[in-house]
Each structure stands twice: as structure tokens, then as C-alpha cells.
């Protein structure tokens, strides 16, 4: 809150405005205030408004003429003439203005951008050394053997157990294959021996023949050694 205090002049125009953060001096006759807002903008500041309220005057009467509504109306009281399209403009007999030629400066072209003041000068050849703080991780604990210092992926005990399990599986597979090979090799041999030498039935076995019976059989049966004509 601003409190105006009259300084005691005869024109009743100078006041001392008490408030926060500091006190201000207002001169209504010269239209000045120590905050400089009234002089720069032409609009009465809060300190001037407090002094004008003390003398029962309107702040609008102490503003600059350029910021009033009368000046605004006078500025736009004339209408703006309409213009046709650019293709219908009258062509001038004079030469049209051209852009100036770009002259290349001697020397090598700069490829680096211009840095701001807070980014540091580009004359420094060596970059500033930045200190980066590394995160210190906690010690790992293996979930397989419950030993700190390594993880399950690099556990030596797990690798040894996996290798032993793989060797046991391979040995079991080899033993099973050998047992299967021996079983399949003995069964066909016995079957083939049984088929090649079958035992004759008891009814088909003839009784033993003596020597005299054998001679009679040979004499009684004719021998056909020649051709059919000779017989």
C-alpha cells in the first residue's frame, strides 16, 4: 500500500510516497516520478496514481496525448485506399532493383558455429576436462552357489556341474547303444542256424537198410546211361 505525504509546497504538487520496497518522490507539475515509469511510458505509475488520488484528480488527465483514445481515433480517421492484385500493377520503365552481389571473403570458410559467451571461447584448443562421477555398483551375489563376487552366469561351480551332467548323459547314451547292438547281433544268428538245419520229423525217418537189400535194389532198377533211342 502506497501512502502519499504532502511536502508542503504552495502548488500542492510534490509528494513523498511511502511504501515497499522504498519511498518515491512524485512531482505532478513536471509529471515525473523517481521510478522513471511515468516518464518512459507516458502512463501514470502507481505512485503518481496515489498522489493524484490525494488531490482528487483523474490519472487519465495526466497521461501523454499519444496514449489517449483521441490520438488513436485521429490516427485511423482516414481510410486506407484499396489496391488491385500484383498482376494488375502498372509496370515501371525504370530498371527493377536487384539484390547485391555476394562477395566471398578471402581465406578458408569457417565450419564451426559461433559459441555463446557462456559456452566458452573457440580459441581454446583443448577442451575443458569434465569430471564424471561413476556409479559404484553393489557387490553381486550368485544365486546358484550363494557366494558374493560373481553372478550366476560366470559361476565356476555351475559350469563344473553342467559339464559333469553332460558327461554322465553321454556315458549313459553310449552304454545304451552298446547294449542294443549286442542284443540285435545275437538273435539273428540263432534264428539262421535253426532255419538252415531243421530237425526231420520222426515219421519221415526210414529204417536202416542192409547190404544185400541195397544190392537187390540196385539190380532191380534199370540204369539209363545212354540216350532214349538206345533204350
Automatic annotation (TrEMBL):
Residues 121-130, 183-197, 220-231 have a biased composition (Polar residues). GO terms for molecular function: zinc ion binding. InterPro entries: Znf_PMZ, Znf_SWIM. Keywords: Metal-binding, Zinc, Zinc-finger. SMART domains: ZnF_PMZ (SM00575). Residues 102-114 have a biased composition (Basic residues). Residues 90-130, 177-231 are annotated as: Disordered. Residues 24-56 form the SWIM-type domain. This is SWIM-type domain-containing protein.
